[in-house]
Design goal:
391 residues; 6-stranded mixed β-barrel; alpha+beta
């Protein structure tokens, strides 16, 4: 047999022996896997809930399709930090070279008085009267064009169910906002928001009547660059010429996320939970893997007595750890994904699992199995092969 083929066969045989040793004690084998599964499940689940919460904070930016640029007061820190502008700022933005078009956009909180006499807080969005830019894209009952009717509003599906629970969808429902009549002319699907209030879409001129009276009411100016110009270049021109803060859609999303990361306790709370999952998983897997190695110390000694080198022993232990890590990672992430699917169908818990969460969990599992294998392999590497001849 050629030397290379013999070496491959020898290596495969060593891996097979390592596998048989690993599953020889089913209890400890399952115990090691349980530690990794627990860590992977907790890390992936908590990280996904955290990502879901962050997605809620920027859902209304993502839902406004069309404009590539958001213009606002220079002190605005995130999407709900409304600092109204003068209406004349719209014309200043339109006058900046490179701006293709610009429209008004109102965002605020209003209080609706229902016919039953109860009150409900609502997120009020006012769209440009002429173009209706920023209108919802998934109106499944009614039409966006109906917003041009007097007192017309479109409400999101979740908000409708919250206000009129267990009642069928029905257009023409009437309620009051700021002592003015509002008529539901459409129902749309909209992304959930961080506040979870019902969302109302209406024309800008109508929104300022529904809202409490203020001297300045313009929340944002939505704009688009001329063809051939980048959004960032036009943002820089707007900021230089008007003194307002102009951000691309992506920049505004990340500015909002960074605000919540820096100014709230959300990342600390979830970070502590993820860290505890990592520590507990490492402790369970490391301790069980060490006990497994101690129990099989005579078998490793026999292999060394037959001439097996430390490098081969090390590869055997690492292959055992890799086997445990892959199984534990797959089961843990699968359970976290199943939990996310369940929450999406039965509850309103925020859950979003991007590929970064899978990568973070994989890295954590890799460290866990690496630490576990290092704790156990040291005893094997310094093992005296003569142990197999002792009583």
């Amino acid at each position: 047999m050629p030397p290379l083929a013999a070496a491959r066969r020898y290596t495969s045989g060593m891996y097979w022996i390592a596998w048989k040793m690993l599953i020889g004690n089913r209890g400890k084998y399952l115990g090691i896997i349980f530690g990794v599964v627990f860590a992977a499940l907790l890390i992936a689940q908590q990280a996904s809930i955290f990502c879901g919460l962050m997605a809620l904070t920027v859902s209304q930016i993502r839902d406004v399709e069309g404009p590539a640029i958001w213009v606002m007061d220079e002190n605005v820190q995130f999407v709900d930090d409304i600092k109204p502008l003068k209406d004349t700022e719209l014309f200043r933005v339109k006058g900046v070279p490179g701006v293709d078009w610009a429209v008004r956009f109102y965002k605020g909180i209003g209080r609706a008085r229902l016919q039953e006499g109860s009150y409900e807080q609502m997120i009020l969005l006012g769209l440009d009267d002429a173009t209706l830019i920023g209108a919802p894209q998934d109106v499944f009952l009614g039409s966006i064009a109906d917003l041009r009717s007097p007192d017309a509003v479109i409400i999101d599906e979740a908000g409708y169910k919250r206000i009129w629970p267990d009642e069928p969808f029905q257009l023409g429902r009437v309620f009051e906002m700021n002592d003015r009549r509002a008529v539901v002319v459409g129902i749309t699907k909209a992304s959930r928001t961080f506040q979870s209030f019902p969302i109302l879409y209406t024309r800008y001129s109508q929104a300022v009547r529904f809202a409490p009276p203020e001297r300045k009411v313009l929340s944002f100016v939505l704009a688009n660059p001329e063809p051939g110009l980048s959004s960032q270049e036009v943002c820089d021109r707007i900021t230089t010429q008007t003194g307002l803060q102009a951000l691309t859609r992506s920049q505004f999303i990340w500015q909002t996320i960074w605000y919540y990361l820096q100014k709230t306790g959300i990342p600390i709370n979830f970070g502590i939970t993820v860290l505890l999952g990592f520590i507990v998983g490492t402790a369970i897997a490391g301790q069980t893997f060490y006990l497994f190695t101690v129990e099989n110390i005579r078998q490793f000694g026999a292999l060394k007595a037959m001439g097996t080198g430390n490098s081969t022993i090390l590869l055997m232990v690492l292959s055992q750890a890799a086997n445990v890590g892959l199984i534990g990672y797959g089961v843990g992430v699968g359970l976290a994904a199943a939990f996310g699917w369940w929450t999406q169908t039965t509850t309103r818990l925020a859950f979003f699992m991007p590929w970064q969460v899978l990568g973070l969990t994989a890295a954590a599992v890799f460290v866990i199995v690496l630490v576990a294998s290092v704790l156990s392999v040291r005893k094997v590497l310094v093992l005296d092969p003569a142990i197999v001849f002792r009583g």
